[in-house]
Amino acid sequence: MNSIVIISLWILLLLNEVLCQVPDETVKVLRSEKVELTCPIDVDTCGELHSLKWFKGTDRIAVVSGDGEVAKVEGSYNDRVYLAHENKRSRLIFKNVEISDEDTYLCETTFLEPSEACENSGAYSIALNVYAIPSVIALQDGSRNSIKNGSHIGPMREGQDLQVVCEVYGARPVPVISWHRSGSVVRDSQIVEDHNGLFTVKSTLSLTLSRQELGATYICRVEMKELSLVVDNHFHIDLQVRPTKINLSGVEHHTVQGTKVLLQCQVSGARPAANMTWYNSTRLIPDETNEITSVSTQTYLQNDGTFETISQMIFTATRFENGASIRCEADNIVMRQDGDRPLHDTLTLEVMYPPVVRVGAENITVNETQDFLLKCDYEANPASLESVKWFRNDQEIKLDSRRHDGGNPENIGLIIKNSTRGDIGAYKCELANSIGKDLSDNEINVDVLYKPTVVLNMDPETPVIENDQANITLLCNIVDGNPLLLTKVRWFLDGEFLKELPECDDDGDGNSLGDENLCEVDPTKMLLQNVGREFIGNYSCQGFNLGGWGDISEENSLDIYYEPGNATITHFPYIGIKRRSVTFNCSVEDRGNPPATRFRWLRGDKPAKDVVTPSWTVDPVGLDSRTTFTCFAYNEGGEGNAAVAHLEVHAPPAFVQKLHPYTGALYSTSNISLACRVECVPSCAISWFKDGVGIEDYDERYYITSTYLPAEPATGDFESAYSVLHFNMSAWPDGMLDRIRDSSNYSCVSSNNSAGPGVRSTTYFGVEYPPENTSLSSPSISVEEGKIPPRIVCSSRAYPEPEFSWWRNAVNIVNGSSLIVNTVMERSDAGVYTCVASNKHGNHSTDAVIDIHYKPTCTITRKEVNDEDILICTAIGSPKESEFDWSLKYENDTLQNHKTRGDAYESILVLENDVSAMRTYVCVATNSVGMGKPCEIEVAGYVAWWLKGDILTPYILIAAVAALLLAVILICVIIICICRRKRRQDKSSIQIEEIEDAEFSFMKNQRSPTKPKPDASENIQQYDKTVRWRIRRFFEKRNSIDLLKLSTQNVITYVKKPQVATTTPSANANSISAKEPQQTSDDRNANVPSTSADVVVTGGTSTAGESQIEPGEYENLPFHGMQTPPKKEKEAITAKSNTYIY
């Protein structure tokens, strides 16, 4: 019974502890983040806050005064934590929270005068939970190798052990790790380690791999519900398993040779895919595709992760596969590593095929008219035949009972009677059954002997060239006959017998009776050595074989080519003339074989292309014709002997360099000459003429130099006479040419020669000079804006004639002597236009001025000149001279009293000072073009000087305002200084009076003579009374809050109690009340939120509400040593006596 009671009490105490430890608020935060712990302060209900303290567990870490002026963070938290204090809340702020900061934080509030409605318990607890997101979530295999998320492990074989570790580092609180496969939880083992508040969890998954892991995905799930965090890392297992099933299918009963056979081998349950191998009995069938067999393998991934492999072998059935056992084998790497035999399946084939035929006695030789037998053997499935056919040279033999026996299914052999040469050939047998037919692979060659037929050929083929001294071989070739071998040959020339080869005799039994070397000579060949024209003729032969002598061959001609004889050359005329023709003739008496019809010509050592006739006309004759000419005849037999002739060529006078039709020279040139060159063979002389009069050697104004130049093959020019007429300018007046008299016709004239008459060349010599005296039709023109100006024509004197161009601002605007403008002119077009006349000797220019006239545009400016306020009207127009007219806008007044002055370029109007209203003045300018647009200006009436827009006016006003502001600032500073000094003096006197009053009361109680000397316990009691007295004095001035209990551990607890007070008026109280002004009800409500009794203030001269407590009275308060206690003014209330409950 006692045990039950004890257990019950223990359970109640545990529940009470748990319930009591429930915090008022829970704050969750991640490590290294900023967090704020907020403590609510109910100032509306509990009144003014005295102080607030923060505790972490039982350790105080921060304290703040009620008004927030003093806030202190203690210990190691000073660098990471700071306080933010407000009227109704206080915040403890962590800059970056750490794991060690996790705890229950207590906020303890102390109020100065808690009211009855205050339900504050004095403490507010906050549970701070610090969480940490995992720094690393990793997967590792049993060898500590990292496994990437989503990767594959393996390949691994069926039956192997696998261990995977899922590790989580740096997490808080402890994460929950679970393994999942296909939605199901898999068992694991876990280890949890604590590292300075951060947890490391290792979960190990151990598996023995089986076929169930095919295609499986394992997920390591890390969950932290407090952070709403779920992280999945998964991996796949690449598992290798052996194949489980093999099936070979294809032909069910039998097949026929020549048809395509498809055999399919299907293997399932393997990973990786199975390797397929085909065998024909024990012979391996290669995978390569060829003309006979095609093997293709396809792999298909199944839903369970295994592969189904289908291998198809396609081949054409033949008789060799009849009864063959086709086997399919399958294995993969798992079976090979375990040493298991491959899976296999076998299929036996039956192939129906047509006969396979073969003939016997492959070679048969008979003479004409003899009989012979042809044999045929075969193999077939089925063996019964349906037809038999025989072929000769691939042509079917039409059986005739008169010449053939056999050749049917009962007797497949064939007998051929009375053979002829038509029976020679290759014989084959074709047999057929119900499956098909087949022709024998081999053949019987039948040979029937008969007499030869020959033809005569020559090697090399004729004709041949005599000069080659060639050898001709006569060949007697057999065309028909059996055997095709000649043992004897007879040779004939033009039908006459020449000889018989070989030149030996035998005794009839094949034994030679003469020279054995002669008997070994090939009788079908006869050699003709070093053939010449005497071998020409018709040759024939006759052959002999085992069948006897054949007929004589047809005749074949032997033709020998030889070259033509000597050539002879003639030409006309005997001497050639340049640019005329010469005809050459070449003749040959012996034209050779075949007769020559073509000739070859050479000019010098260069052949004449495309000239093959016996006559050649050279036209025209040139310098290249003054050489030797060679000709000879040629044919297929060669070239004949050549003939050579030399041609002499003359050239009539002709200009190589003639005078230009016109020759010009600058009048002041110091070096002038004329030159001409005349080709002439034989040579000729050159003379000079001026205007038809010959220039003599004694004329000092000229001198002539002459030279006879050699021929120039490069240009084809013959020898030529070169003459230069020089002007001796030192002999001319002033060393210059006259522009008129010296412009003449000069001629170069050659003499005649035997080839032709002389030639003449004439040039007009002109004296040239640069442009001068350039003039304009209108040097200056004026045109109104918007109109087209007249044409301006530019002229100048020069030779050769000048070219004209017009320029403006260094830009070419038009070429030609006339400046024609087809568009209207603008004022920007006004300016200088320059005409430039130029030829090859220089240029000369003149300017034309175009002035654009337009109406004036006026502007009005206002100025002060010589103490006069004036308006200046200026105008811009063309012409610049203008007349000005002033007027007022919107006014009926005139400007007769205003003074005006000016000139043709501006007008000045003097303003009057007595005009107070604003006016608008209008100015109009007029020139010779017309009246321009009026311009106007608004002028305000007369104003004071400070309102004028003078430059100094703003500076004067700014200086005045600045001086005024400076004076105001100085006065304010003086007043502030006086007030501060006055307040400091009043405060010092009040504090001194309060301290003296408190010390006097305390010393009075200590020095009472009637009391005996206290012992140690009495001293402690006396000290406790003194502290109570000081605190009571403090709270007497704070609206009568009862002091219930004071501990010696510097912690004060306050409880609101009903207050009993009896007040009676007294003269002293009245006198105090009369001296101090009373506060209004509003003031009292603001300063004293919860008062329920009056308080009598005695023993002091300070105003109501001010502190009369010594500084030592605050030693046991929370903010002792930090600042002076707060002061509030209170209304003094008189009372006779006060009663307190301690």
From TrEMBL:
Membrane topology: Single-pass membrane protein
Pfam families: C2-set_2, I-set, Ig_3
Chain ranges of the Ig-like domain: 17-125, 134-230, 243-348, 354-445, 452-559, 564-648, 653-764, 771-851, 856-940
Source superkingdom: Eukaryota
UniProt feature, compositional bias: Polar residues: 1063-1080, 1087-1106
Protein's UniProt name: Ig-like domain-containing protein
Subcellular location: Membrane
UniProt xrefs under PANTHER family: NEUROMUSCULIN, ISOFORM E (PTHR23278:SF32), SIDESTEP PROTEIN (PTHR23278)
Cleavable signal peptide: 1-20
Keywords: Disulfide bond, Membrane, Signal, Transmembrane, Transmembrane helix
